[in-house]
Specification:
Strand content of chain A: over 45%
Radius of gyration of chain A: 13 Å
Number of strands of chain A: 11
Order of helices and strands of chain B: EEEEEEEEEEE
Number of strands of chain B: 11
Order of helices and strands of chain A: EEEEEEEEEEE
Radius of gyration of chain B: 14 Å
Shape of chain A: globular
Distance between the termini of chain B: 39 Å
Largest sheet of chain A: 7 strands, mixed
Helix content of chain B: under 10%
Oligomer: heterodimer
Strand content of chain B: over 45%
Largest interface: A-B, 27 and 27 residues
Structural class of chain A: mainly beta
Structural class of chain B: mainly beta
Chain lengths: 114, 114
Amino acid sequence: NAGVTQTPKFQVLKTGQSMTLQCAQDMNHEYMSWYRQDPGMGLRLIHYSVGAGITDQGEVPNGYNVSRSTTEDFPLRLLSAAPSQTSVYFCASSLQGFFPDTQYFGPGTRLTVL
Amino acid sequence: GQQLNQSPQSMFIQEGEDVSMNCTSSSIFNTWLWYKQDPGEGPVLLIALYKAGELTSNGRLTAQFGITRKDSFLNISASIPSDVGIYFCAGQLPSGGSNYKLTFGKGTLLTVNP
């Protein structure tokens, strides 16, 4: 049981490039989400999904796309990277997305956009 | 968006000392959570609070959900070196939608000198 895994761990992009951050969980969790963490800031919700085929926007969705074709995977796509997207990205999952479920976080992807 | 004011921003203490940190908001929250983040890792849930006035302990950690529902505190007793990390509060607003649309504080960086 690997929990929540994220790849890559580190990534450097040039402005305008696109890429996909991968997130997978093996706990059969319905709810998955993406956050970004900037220096001196708390986590901010980008997108979330309550199950396969269902996604919705969080607090800061602009510049990011998501899809949820399987229960296990929830990739985050940067369509045209900008320096403002330099951040640490965390994927998280929970059983159903309702309390008292515990939300488990992945180890993060550190992204730098030049 | 909603703001959680978390204080202090950082703390430097000696091993064995007690620690207290808190979060306040101008808005009412339904749920308060406290997370710890180790360097290079994702946040891990420490304590969840679901009712106003609730006082909950987890080992040396104690947290309370304020009576006004606008604040919460976390206490760590007899600190040890492995308590080092960033502590985040997070709250869930009483609005519709996914219960995991959390608002995070900016974090308290704790350093413990052995």
